[in-house]
Amino acid sequence: MNEKCEILIVGAGTAGTYLGWLLAKKGFSVVIIEKDKREEVGKRLDVIHFESDRVEKAGIPPFQVGAPDCIEIRDVSTVVTPDFKKELKIRALQTIVRLTPFLNRMYSVLESDGVKLEFTCKFKSLIIENNQIVGLVAEKGGKSIEYRTELVIDASGKAAVIRTSLPEDYGVETFNLGPNDVMYVLLQYIKWEKPEEPHPTANTDYNWWLLWFGPSYDPEGAILGVGQPGSFDNARLAREDFLKRADLPPYEIIKKEQGSTPYRRPPHSLVADRFLCIGDAAAITYPFSGHGVTATWVLCMIASDVIEENLKNGKDLTRDVLWEINVRYYRNQGAKFASLFTQLSGVLNFNEKEWDYFLKKGLIYQTGEGEDIPEPNKEYEEEMSMGEMLNFLFKILGGLFRRKLSFKHMKSLLQANGLAGKIKKHYENYPENIKEFDDWVKKSQELWTQKKTAVKKLPSVTIEYH
Ligand SMILES: Cc1cc2nc3c(=O)[nH]c(=O)nc-3n(C[C@H](O)[C@H](O)[C@H](O)COP(=O)(O)OP(=O)(O)OC[C@H]3O[C@@H](n4cnc5c(N)ncnc54)[C@H](O)[C@@H]3O)c2cc1C
């Protein structure tokens, strides 16, 4: 069977669904193929958090609390210091979503805007003619379908089934995600056996262990989550260390989920001839949380504008034509995320006492009480005013003199921050001229090799953050 469309997207997760919708609204013929059944896409995760400000920016049809896909919309979170002595209130704009119902709500919206969705339809191989992608072969119900298209978009998640099968010289890195390139996440849906006894509220972070209690669909329950790189065992052992220290009332584990989320720099180019990668397939996640859903929507908005402008003008969507997507993405959000990812290698070295100090002195989060909790930094800028910088340095010096902070770790932090600044600047200068790309990549690789591995020592496990 042969089919034709202007844009073919592989994967109907949150990334493919959103970009497919944007492009169909602009009048293009869009097909999305998805290997899973319609009502089962996203079933690997139940409850998931979206950044509310990004949901609004993306123009997603509003969530209604109590609808099948929305549990709650909240704006305050609690962070607890590793010694359990202090709780900080921070502003965190979160919409608590049930993933599969959300995707199914969006599928109806997409279909009414003209997207053709093909479920239980699996990508098999690319069709390349004259060194250019011209389509792909998929399989549905034992039959082969050959799609001819102007653009193939890889939105297949961490497997990145297309990106990783591109010819090596096609223009996009073909790496697979290894154990140090992901955060392994373990989730336990729990129910407090004695809900009247004090327990962590359902939006509480214990950053030292990279562990949190998130809201569940059950008001007397919570989701106990933990994420660590390297292996599921690292995550499990970190959770065990936390449980030995935390004084929790009894709870029952109702169900468990596990998975991994990208924790590495994205490919240097997201585009090639008639090709684009987005979402987990492009390793785009918020560096500090590992959340990926709304992180990639920014890229989708840029991509849909560039594709529209060129396809409407009858242009072939070559690497040159799509290049503007790289430039606009990497000079802005891409640069900020690269910088934050680098800074993490300084922060993750802190020992327990240092985390206590940093959190209590307000050096990581802006905290407050009631209405006075400051707005979060929605644009992920980390620039400080001169006054804030002096205040920050003063507190660091105080910590050093009072031996709350070690010189070794503060040196690592300053080095990581220095490198982060250089990396940010480098990405802000992402080349407009494709001929300068090779030199830009060379410099980028030199910078990334300077990023140091951070090490955290917990009583039962030592974890490396690469
Ligand atoms: C435990 C856990 C908790 C998380 N919590 C959050 C959170 O709270 N907030 C947040 O923003 N992010 C969270 N993330 C990350 C988030 O799940 C991902 O970043 C996001 O789902 C990526 O979306 P995607 O569309 O790129 O990929 P996916 O959601 O993986 O979608 C890819 C789709 O492609 C399909 N596919 C794959 N191969 C083929 C093929 N050969 N042919 C056809 N279709 C194919 C898959 O079936 C899948 O439906 C979490 C991750 C984990 C593991």
Can you describe this structure in just a few lines?
Helix content is 33%, strand content 27%. With 466 residues, the chain is of the alpha/beta class.
Explain what the structure shows.
By secondary structure, the protein is of the alpha/beta class. The protein has 3 domains: 2-68 and 98-174 and 264-317, FAD/NAD(P)-binding domain, CATH 3.50.50.60; 180-262, D-Amino Acid Oxidase, Chain A, domain 2, CATH 3.30.9.10; 341-376 and 383-465, no CATH class. Helices cover 33% and strands 27% of the residues. The strands form 3 sheets. Strands 1, 2, 6, 7, 8, 9, 15 and 16 form an 8-stranded mixed beta sheet that branches. Strands 3-5-4-11-12-13-10-14 form an 8-stranded mixed beta sheet. α9 runs antiparallel to α10 (437-449). The longest helix is centred in the C-terminal third of the chain and has 29 residues, at 319-347. It is globular, with a radius of gyration of 23 Å. The N and C termini lie far apart (46 Å). The structure holds flavin-adenine dinucleotide (FAD). Flavin-adenine dinucleotide is lined by residues 10-16, 33-36, 41, 45, 48-49, 122-123, 155-157, 159, 161, 185, 187, 257, 259-261, 279-281, 285, 291-294.
Helical amount: 25-40%
Mean pLDDT: 93
Largest sheet: 8 strands, mixed
C-alpha Rg (nearest Å) = 23 Å
Question: Could you give the topology of this structure?
Answer:
Blueprint: E1 2-10, H1 14-25, E2 30-33, E3 47-51, H2 52-58, E4 70-80, E5 87-98, H3 99-112, E6 116-118, E7 121-129, E8 132-140, E9 143-154, E10 182-192, E11 204-206, E12 211-214, E13 221-229, H4 232-245, E14 251-262, E15 271-272, E16 275-277, H5 293-312, H6 319-347, H7 352-360, H8 386-401, H9 407-428, H10 437-449, E17 454-458, E18 461-465
Parallel strand pairs: 1-2, 1-9, 2-6, 4-11, 9-16
Antiparallel strand pairs: 3-5, 4-5, 7-8, 8-9, 10-13, 10-14, 11-12, 12-13, 15-16, 17-18
Bound molecules: flavin-adenine dinucleotide.
